[in-house]
Amino acid sequence: MAGRRIDKPSRQPLYTASRHIATEIARAVRLRSGPLISHPVKFLCAHRRRRLAIQMKVRILYHDHCFDGAASAAFFSRFYTDKFDAGAELVYTGMAHKPDQLFDDSLFDGDENAIVDFKYSNSPKVTWWFDHHQSAFLTPADAEDYQRHKGTKRFYFDPDCRACTLFISRVAREVYSYEAADLSDLVHWAEIIDGALYASAEEAVAMRAPAMKLTLVIEASKGSAIVQQIIRMMQRQSLASIMETPAIQDEFRPLYERHLKSIDVIRRMSECKDGVIFFDVADLDMEGYNKFIPYSLFPQATYTVSVSLASFRTKISVGSNPWCEEPPKHNLATICERYGGGGHPRVGAISFGRDQVEEARRVAREVVAELRG
Question: What are the residues whose beta carbons fall under 8 Å from the beta carbon of 160, sequence distance 6 or more?
């Protein structure tokens, strides 16, 4: 019986690998001074171990399921790697507002620990902090801690800035002489989206621009994996190219269909009275709905109050109509703070446990009564 032919392996892969090893040894040698190397491969292995051992780990905590939160994490990542350490390992943790909002010290496991677009932590492990929410401090002690350390640490706070991404880009430019011209569109859309600077409620609901479609994916997707994938892409890619990615398209299509259905649900469940829209969708799958839908349905309204259920909390959302003729008279962050929530003067939220739906409904009715009074 004829034997099976065995092809001789090509020499090319071995040659290519040897060439890469030689190149890396040569690069390592240029960084080294001292006697001649007697064992090049052992030297290379040791060099690689040393290089890995000193790689900086940067933990970035960001406001999860929020376009400005994701954009803030992306801009900070680009700023840090361009300005301080191109070889740093960047790892992300999405943060959500919860009724028992405390920072577990184990969250801060990096050589550098940054918080962007989220509340202040007084942990000594935090090395960077950027936020623009009126309700940035959980306690008066946190506010005092910030005042003590803002001159000696890289802590930055501006509650008057519309978007945290815009704020980070401004600090990077004015304090660190850093600009990323190719991220100007990211900064621009973060301000529009977080500042609700759309031309109309209809434009905000239609979501024709890539940034607005991406907002739906960020806000309504389950878990943090897809958001963190987007954060990494935002650092170098345009928003349009990110939306064209097959994985993002696959995530977007069912969410957009759900978005269209949610318009009818909110129309059916809403009560608009004395300038305040109220609806309760805690019994429905409505997590991450578009917050401008109520104003497209009831343009005469000034405020919206809603109750919804997420995977980890019951949420009261309180918002104001960016297109109403008269500016709102109530500071919504201040109202929400009374119940353990917070936000901005024109938009806020209050969080409860998943088993506290009835308590959330009671508080929502109080907020509605105050806004209608």
Answer: 132
